[in-house]
Amino acid sequence: MKNNVMSAALAAAVLGAAGTATAGQYLSGDFHNHTTCSDGSTSVKTLTRKSLEYLDWFIQVGHSGRGSRDCRISDFLYMNRDSDAGSGLWVNSLPGGAADIKGDIRYETMRNGGQVQTMWRWQSLQEFQVPSIVEERNLPANEGKTAFLGLEWVVPGHEHTSASISNGQYGEEPNADALAQFEYCFASNSDDTSMGGGQGWTCELSPESNDKLKALFAGRPEEGPADYNATLVGGVNTDDSGDHVKSTAAVMWMQENFPGESFAVQSHIERQGPFTPGSNRGYNIEHIRDWNSMAPEVAFGFESEPGHQSSGGRGGYSTSRPTAGFYTFGGTGCYAGAEAAKPGYHFDGTPITAADFLAGGEFEELSDSTDPARVTACRPGIRTMWDALLSEGRRFWYFASSDWHNRGSFGPLDFETTGDFWPGEYQKQYVWLEDGEEDEAKAVVDALRSGNSFAVRGDLIKGDLEFKACAGHRCATMGETLKVRKGQMVWVVLELTDPQGANNSQYKFDNPALLQIGKRVPLNEPELAQVDLIMGAVNGLVEPTDADYYNPLAPASTHIARTWTDFGKRWGHKHKRDQRSKLIHLFKASGDSYIRARGSNLPAGTPYMRDMDGNPLRDDLAANIPCEDAACPTHINGVLNYDVEAWADLTFHTNPIFIEVVND
Fold first, then answer.
1. For the chain, what is the largest distance between any 2 Cα atoms, rounded to a whole number of angstroms?
2. Burial of 142 (0-12, 13-18, 19+ CB in 10 A)
3. What is the pLDDT of residues 183-192, one digit of tens each?
């Protein structure tokens, strides 16, 4: 290696296998959602209480920066966001008014033209959000459930990231001091220099970590000043010089100061398209690799399955940003649900030009003024960016979340929605939580890091999934590594339960997507239709000096190894009890590899939804499917859209198991 960035110790950390799980169970949760502390419609207490009706664990987050609204108040109509009158603003509701707002005083221009003082997020985390969380989790109804605080970090130079530091949140005197300091130091929209209102906060890395950062960015001047510590003034960098350098320093700061207690998982990672220097937009694969290489115990995954699943463009993805791939694919962004080309280029390697936006061009749906460098071409397939990372052997995981804000054009207690679902109402992230953990918040962070997790939409399967690979008497599950001899037989076993009865959907008419192929299945009683095992070769880490470090397309060795479609049910006659299926695949180990699973209620070849291999198509195509049942709601305008589309298209995704061939 030319710059020794990927040392042997670092490679071991990036590629290291998780430990084998002990006694425990898979429990469901959500770690990306919003309250009135940022731009949501519900208070911390209200959202925590509602979420724990659906879930076992809950991490409440909100945007970093600052806000004017007293976020202890639910505000379903957004009155306190849009007006400077009333008691819903911090300056009006605190006993001392402006005197109780700490840090350098800043103002936010309100929509009716007035200026109102705002509170830095670090203060609301410490003084208001933690007490609200603690009060709710101590209710008898929530006994045995876990709730603590996180942050939707507004990342220097990039799209948002779901993050948390568990330190102190389940102590004798619960606090979010560590998370608050991180927000003060690294939020891109914060120019507070008060050291946390006099708490003495500074934001430097150790000299050793700063040297690693400089080595990583040597020869990459477009990223900005590589010497992060040298950009600090008064212990903090408020001008975000370097953008991506500062964001990488942030995850390194987490790992250095709070090892085992912190995570940073990129949110709705495709939404803002590719990285654009000097602008807080998007990530390219090199930025994901940078974070994971420098802080593998913190930056260990992304949310490629976004929330906002019932919005008109699932995930809030669209051509106007333009989103990478423009839309989701089966509810998942193209970084894990399809194949992405290098930003600004076609799949054949030729540059995208203005001619591609003209009538008859590949991207004619985009504005003629679109910058070609901002376009990421995506297509259905399995050679995803996620698989490119897995093919290096990176322990990097798939996550899903609700991104709850509100129900769009409906009220928070209506079942219809053109915006969001409550956390756990539609999407669930299951993680393996071991029994007897004393620090409940740290246990959830440990579980997320382990990779022993899977995501489910619409309760397509239950949380009792078992996914393992075995050779002889040894087995490994998701996030773990099975060591085998070359030529040894490996048994892959996937056991899952298709639950009997209805899920949380209130729509009982037949799924319009399945009616196209003559199958009558009620929307609220989905049936598992197809399960795929996806395998790929592990070829070792790609060096930052290698051209492939910037290549988001997985190797051609990525393939569908096995597909199951017969689960013993007759279409249109829902089984009367939970149906447990045991799926088995055998292969002979020939080299290092990984294997992951996905499943859907839609079979391969479903028009406008799945290709002939079962790969999801762009979700905007669902508008070609009519909804003609008398019970179809009027807000979808007669086609598959909004919440009806979400309930019609359900999936599960597991994290991978790694297979390592050894010589002994």
1. 73
2. middle
3. 999 998 788 9
